[in-house]
């Protein structure tokens, strides 16, 4: 029985992705607004992406800039040069939706919920070919 467990762990280690990555979960940001910023930096050089994100006026750019810089720091820990990195993948997922408060309507029309959307963002860096 222990032999199969060892084989299984070796198989998992072989399939593990060794590229540097960083992620943020439950970011107080709508996924539709984050997608606009993500599409501008996907596939770009690491240094260019940091420059683009630092001058974008969107709130999503500030959050994504932190994640990209964190992934770059993880790459330097692994011994990679930051000038040879590109943003290989950016995975955007929708997080939980919170209903924090209501917007009351007049004339007996009730109330509308105000929803707060959240996002999960994962940035994976790769080396230039």
Account of the 3D structure:
The protein is of the alpha+beta class and 129 residues long. 42% of the residues lie in helices and 30% in strands. The protein contains four helices and five strands; from the N terminus they run H-E-H-H-H-E-E-E-E. The chain has helices spanning 2-15, 31-41, 46-55, 59-77, and strands at residues 21-27, 85-94, 98-104, 111-116, 119-127. The strands form two sheets. A three-stranded antiparallel β-sheet has the order 1-5-2, with helices on one face. Strands 3-4 form a two-stranded antiparallel ribbon. A hairpin with a 6-residue loop joins strand 3 (98-104) and strand 4 (111-116). The radius of gyration is 20 Å and the shape is flat. It starts with a helix and ends with a strand.
Topology:
Layout: H1 2-15, E1 21-27, H2 31-41, H3 46-55, H4 59-77, E2 85-94, E3 98-104, E4 111-116, E5 119-127
Antiparallel strand pairs: 1-5, 2-5, 3-4
Provide the number of structural domains.
1
Query: Using DSSP, what is the number of strands?
Result: 5
Could you give the order of the helices and strands?
HEHHHEEEE
| Number of separate helices | 4
CATH architecture name: Alpha-Beta Complex
CATH topology (level 3) name? Ribosomal Protein L22, Chain A
Structural class: alpha+beta
Mean pLDDT: 91
Radius of gyration: 20 Å
The largest β sheet comes out as: 3 strands, antiparallel
How far apart, in Å, are the first and last alpha carbons? 42 Å
Q: Which key phrases capture this entry?
A:
129 residues, alpha+beta, Ribosomal Protein L22, Chain A, 4 helices, 5 strands, 42% helix
């Amino acid at each position: 029985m222990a032999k199969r467990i060892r084989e299984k762990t070796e198989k998992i280690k072989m399939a593990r992705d060794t590229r540097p990555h960083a992620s943020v979960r439950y970011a107080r940001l709508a996924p539709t607004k984050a997608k606009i910023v993500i599409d501008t930096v996907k596939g770009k050089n690491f240094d260019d992406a940091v420059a683009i994100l630092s001058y974008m006026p969107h709130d999503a750019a500030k959050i994504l800039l932190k994640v990209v810089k964190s992934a770059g720091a993880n790459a330097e820990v692994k011994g990679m040069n930051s000038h040879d990195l590109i943003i290989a993948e950016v995975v955007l997922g929708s997080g939980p939706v919170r209903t924090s408060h209501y917007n009351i309507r007049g004339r007996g029309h009730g109330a509308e919920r105000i929803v707060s959307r959240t996002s999960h963002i994962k940035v994976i860096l790769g080396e230039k070919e």
